[in-house]
Amino acid sequence: MKVLQEGMLADFLNRFMDIILLNALWFLCSLPLFTMGAATCALYEVTMRFAVYENPAVIRTFFLTFRRCFRKATILFLIFLGAGMFLIADLWCAFQWKIRFQFPVVVVILAVAYFYLAVLSHVFPVLAYFDTGVRECIRKAFFLSMNNGVFTVFIMVINLSPVFLFLLLPGYFGQILFMYLIVGFGGIAMLCSLHLIRLFAPERVKKAEEFYA
Q: Taking the mean position of all CA atoms in its chain, how far away is CA 141?
């Protein structure tokens, strides 16, 4: 979606408007909740193309990917939703139980939660880029996330930034919510995509950078 025609400032503003549009599309397509997985795949498909200096038709690309990934993304979303609820329930119970080995139990649950969040941070971009089966998608997301520890933590922190901001700045709840409603999640996907596309296709990134150097 081009607002201005040329120049570095124009490129930045055009991309910023694309992110706002993507953010709106993601929110609208996530409203039924169970469609959130497909919407996230579609979001990352576009932002990963942005990360290699492509200029896809945002709306068309988003909805083509949404339709292509819908079934597998919905299955993945339900799997991770169930697993996440199970982990939250386990952690709540661990804090409630007054048992002798409470601390080790909590540590084990938090360790499992780390792996859960690491895979969750990669699984929908993996599906969008590689379009594999559900089981292979989880396996690939696991190994990619485990092989890139520092960057995995970075992506997890970015994805959890809304939670951190709400906890750290509760007095600015309205302003933070407004920011994320306008641009936040599209911006998060864009930041993550700058690393993820290098993880998924380093040669593609190298060629793009050489071409635009």
A: 12
